[in-house]
Amino acid sequence: MDLEVDGSILKLVGDFDVRSTSTVRQALYAHLEAHTDTCEHDIVVDLSGVPSVDETALRVLAVATRAAERAGHRLVLRGCSPSVRRMLTVARFRHRVSVEPVAV
């Protein structure tokens, strides 16, 4: 899993599964901490480079979403592939995280 930071955007590249959740969790919380005192309301996690996720990865995103909300921010998933969107729906995580609509 590769991680890139661009302002309030955290971009993930690679499979987001149980093997990478620890790395992503640490990066997410560091990213949230870095933006706690900013005016930026949305913290974006760009998943356009993530071909697949598992349920463990979705749990990390759901918990980070709650942490962001407690800090007065909103964690938003951007660039979700059809397989990631499907997993969000199948695992019933769609209501726990914010997903940007797909541009048509």
TrEMBL record:
Q: Which InterPro entries match?
A: MlaB-like_STAS (IPR058548), MlaB_ABC_Transporter (IPR052746), STAS_dom (IPR002645), STAS_dom_sf (IPR036513)
Q: Which PROSITE patterns does this one have?
A: STAS
Q: Where is the STAS domain?
A: 9-104
What name does this protein carry? Answer: Stage II sporulation protein AA (Anti-sigma F factor antagonist)
Q: Native species of this protein? A: Nocardioides massiliensis
